[in-house]
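so my prof wants the structure for this chain in the tokens format not the other one, which i didnt know existed until like an hour ago. anyway here's the sequence
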Amino acid sequence: MDASSFSVQESTLTKVRTVAAELSGVAAAIDKGELYPEALMRRFGEAGAWASHLPLSGEANLSVAIESIAAMAERCGATGFLGWCQNALVWYLANTDNEALRDMYLSALASGKQLGGTGLSNPVKSFSGIEELKLKSRKVAGGYIVRGALPWVSNLGEDHILAAICEDQDVPGAAMMFVADCAAPDVQLTPCAPFLAMDGTATYSVRFRDSFIPDSMVLAQSAAPFVRKIRAGFILLQVGMAIGLIRDCIKLMLQVRDGLGHVNKYLEEQPEDIEEVLTALEKETAALAATPYDTSDDYWRHVLTLRLRAGEASVAAAHAAMLHSGARGYVMTHRAQRRLREAYFVAIVTPATKQLRKMLAEMPS
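here's what i got, hopefully its the right format
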């Protein structure tokens, strides 16, 4: 990396961290669903958070994007998740061969002027043989008619967009990936029931009522090879959520050391133990983030293993932070209990711990 590139990256991270500092005052409201941080999401875009991983000269490095998500998650897990949603959608648009679609949305998404979600939870499970694709399509003149519903898609609103994958009802196994406009009359958003955490993530059930998707909105006519291209980025960006959360859990443990260290020293997990795990995660993430287009089995296995460890480390760190905090952490206004709830989300968001273990078990040895 040359000096100018390094300077740009540091400048972007400085701006992102400045905006992220404002999350401390609103994280509780976001967690409870009282606030969807749309204005902050747009400001993160202005700071460069959604553009740092755009491929240049055919190459991409996800390190700054992951670190940006970590900066958000260190203050608020829900916003870190929203950051992943936005960055993942940018990643799809950056890698499509549909130039018209790129021209329509990529710049706006990367700058935060346009926001949107990634409806790939169901397809990612489907490609692992866990469930069937919930959206079905049929080819018509100039595009496709799509029908079906996705139960949970986040970072949405009437002026947002989302990506999704549907199966050709006439050609079993054939699937295409597309972008849909939430404002379309045949796309219906329904608010979801309250969650254990992350309620301010603008999460909706999305129903396609014989929705017309023109060819100009197709990300990939054949979804499988496209997913293979973007899959590492999809998963590596999620690690930013874990890194940020774990950092704050370490802070929580250190903050109570002066008052409770005399008894907390008997707990099995100490902040130094968590720091060691975090350092290893950060180092491996940086290495893998430098080559997101590597499609080798060995690289893919490392990506899946890292994501699995990140989820498990999040739960372990939040559990330790809760025990170190003691009764004060059990109060609803204390962030230790919020961190514990957010950590479980990191472990169950697609691909969840059990899916990752299944995928790794089924890979060639």
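also thought this was worth mentioning. Residues 147 and 210 are 5 Å apart (CA to CA).
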